[in-house]
Amino acid sequence: MAIGLYSAGIIGTGSYLPEKVITNKDLEQIVDTSNEWIVKRTGIRERRIAEDCQATSDLATNAALLALEDAELTAKDIDLILIATSTPDMPFPSTACIVQHNIKAENSAAFDLEAACSGFIYALNTAHQYIATGFYKNILVIGAECLSRITNWKDRRTCVLFGDGAGAAVVSRVKNGYGFLSHYLGADGSGAAALNVKAGGSRMPATLETIEQNYHTIYMDGSEVFKFAVRIMSTAAEEALRLAGLEKESIDYLIPHQANIRIIENAAKRLNLSMAKVFFNIDKYGNMSAASIPVALDEAVKSGKIKKGDNVCLVGFGAGLTWGSSILKWHK
Ligand SMILES: CC(C)(COP(=O)(O)OP(=O)(O)OC[C@H]1O[C@@H](n2cnc3c(N)ncnc32)[C@H](O)[C@@H]1OP(=O)(O)O)[C@@H](O)C(=O)NCCC(=O)NCCS
Known about the structure:
Strand order of the largest sheet: 1-7-6-4-5
Bound molecules: coenzyme A
Strand content: 15-25%
Number of domains: 2
């Protein structure tokens, strides 16, 4: 079922994780926590952290080049670079412009999109619209984050959760019947206070005081976000299924946002899915916000877990509050 003139799907994926590993044992040295608590409450064992010399665009560039190779395209074939990130290199220019220059995508437009951890799903949806209308042919969609730069390393409630990384997908025309079957996006700005970075924007520009108060780092009401996440993950997946005209049983593989293994297990249960059909790598990388889903997708595809004809469901949630899901029939 094509939405618009042309069917669109993902024709190549790539991901990049910085080499530096921080284990739960390492975190025991800097905050009052334990490996046992982190594993039991979140499922996270370690996370990757970018080198001081690396910014979000560097991680994104590496992921982008691998996705292009996988799609058997060159940078010159790309019409648009779309980056979902909450940790851009700088307020402007966009990180997408920096990546465009790095990979020499000289025929490409470029912009960033911000929907926190739901960003990659929002960006896939956006890319789909351009392909479906025939406006563009090949779009590089990237989710990339350096969350370590906005983490409060003195706050044990948040610093154990996050990691850095980037994942990319090339979205292009595919044969009718394959590719995206549906998307479902949502937002509820009344939940903005539950998860945010307070300072550094127009509301609260950087001052000595904002730095002293740690207002440039992530604030999260963990239990509020947990309750929301458990509800929205299955609801969002079900809505995308409904829009695609499919039943729960039709999901061959679920790629959820990687925030907490308990949230993922709960979503699987509500969707009547065995964990064998659910991808998770949260143990290795923690929560990489907009990068979590594309990195998971790349690893699932490359490890042969997703096959041609499979109905794949991507589902995420995040600050905003926001949520999103996509169903696609894998075509490669
Ligand atoms: C953050 C989260 C893991 C906390 O787990 P939880 O089971 O809800 O734990 P609570 O916040 O209720 O805290 C329980 C206790 O553990 C303590 N605690 C919190 N973090 C800790 C840590 N890293 N190590 C040890 N103890 C910790 C708390 O201080 C609290 O102690 P208290 O009872 O003495 O006050 C969980 O709420 C969560 O995953 N929330 C959703 C996060 C999310 O999805 N964020 C991303 C959105 S994209």
